[in-house]
Amino acid sequence: MADDPLVVGNSTDAVILVGGQGTRLRPLTLSAPKPMLPVAGLPFLQHLLARIAEAGITHVVLATSFKAEVFEQHFGDGADLGLELDYVTETEPLGTGGGIRNVLPKLRGDTIMVFNGDVLGGADLGAVLDTHASSRADVTLHLVRVSDPRAFGCVPTDESGRVTEFLEKTEDPPTDQINAGCYVFRREYIEKIPGGRAVSVEREVFPVLLAEGAHVQGHVDNSYWRDMGTPEDFIRGSADVVRGIAPSPALPGQRGEFLVHSGAGVAPGALLIGGTVVGRGAEVGAGARLDGAVLFDGARVEAGATVERSIIGFGARIGPRALVRDAVIGDGANIGARCELLNGARVWPGVDLPDGGLRFSSDV
Ligand code: GDD
Ligand code: MG
After folding, report:
1. How many angstroms separate the alpha carbon of residue 165 from the centre of ligand 1?
2. b vs e for 321-353, b when ≥16 Cβ sit within 10 Å of the residue's Cβ?
3. Where is the Nucleotidyl transferase domain (predicted)?
4. Contacts of residue 346, Cβ cutoff 8 Å, sequence gap at least 6
């Protein structure tokens, strides 16, 4: 019945797609898959897993491919998070649709909630499941509105909220409603996805379902939403979690302008603002200025250096009075004193820039 109470828990499985290569976040994704990069000091996936647990779903299947082993090494059977985690690995990436189809043998229920593994969101997952149940849809898509839909799946709906088209990354979007990367499937619609080959859920599965007349419902809301696929979004998303703008049940407690994790050292006179996070064992020197900085574990920012809207990789070092703005510094890199890294600069892991070795001005 349409007004049946929603049943989650054992009857609803979650599937998280985490097999992408995270190319736009290189060089950070050379050593870790995108969903494992620390956001506000915790692996990104931990925030999503906590939201899934909070919604009452306990069985979660991770669809892995690129750097598959890292996930299981970190999360194990999921008991620490109150979850039962399963892992299914694609030896060759099967795409988003192929990845969903590939986990079919692990699914237990008739309702499957699928997540892109790189979306920081605040949607009420229970409400998405309610829409799916009350509209008796075959598939329900969570949709949000963005100012520029061209980088996403554009998803127009009719007056009843039913999806009329799915246009992945179109140059001429007919609406600002986009695919937020969270779907509810009736199990048989996963069984229909062709097996044994790469399939895109966005370019093949959804357009075919719509052409065949399946009931694909949209669930639109105004929740916090950000795809974490680029350095700019990753930095903003991390800062939003630190400040409490993006909800995360994985990090309970008060939020403020910065977050310093255990074992980190911040010298007196350092300024930490803009949602800066200082990872475990990281060090910040006297008079350093960190504004919207993401310091991974073991990173060091020396005295008088400035880091703005940038990611400093595991164990990387920013020398005294260096300036790092809108940049990504790879794991273990060393940025010498007074160097200037600006405007989209990406330093590869282990690179050693000597003191004063890269500047945009002629003074030393
Ligand atoms: N298992 C598996 N196998 N996972 C994959 C594969 C694969 O072959 N390819 C990608 N993924 C995972 C990625 O790890 C990521 O979590 C998710 O699928 C989406 O891939 P992205 O590469 O991040 O896609 P996108 O951001 O360009 O676009 C997608 O997300 C947008 C919302 O964030 C699409 O679903 C768009 O329609 C959507 O608007
Ligand atoms: Mg993405």
Report:
1. 19
2. bbbbbbbbbbbbbbbbbbbbbeeebbbebeeeb
3. 14-241
4. 26, 27, 231, 327, 328, 330
How many angstroms does the Cα of residue 72 sit away from the middle of ligand 2? Answer: 21
Would you list the DSSP string of 164-198?
---EET-SS-SSSEEEEEEEEEEHHHHHTSPPSS-
Name the pairing type of β-strands 334-335 and 328-329.
Answer: unpaired
Evaluate if residue 4 carries a pLDDT over 80: no
Nearest alpha-carbon partner for 266 in 283, 242, 280: 283
CA–CA distance, 242 with 306 (Å, rounded to integer)? 19
pLDDT tens digits, 156-190: 999 999 999 999 999 999 999 999 999 999 999 99
What SS3 class is residue 14? strand
Which residue carries 């892992």 as its tokens?
87
Which residues have C-beta under 5 Å from ligand 2, the single-atom ion? Answer: 118, 227, 229
Domains of the chain in sequence order: 9-229 (3.90.550.10), 257-353 (2.160.10.10)
Residue nearest to atom 22 of ligand 1 (CA): 20
Residue to probe by mutation, ligand 1, list 65, 116, 183, most atoms within 8 Å of CB: 116
Q: Whose CA is nearest to atom 10 of ligand 1?
A: 20
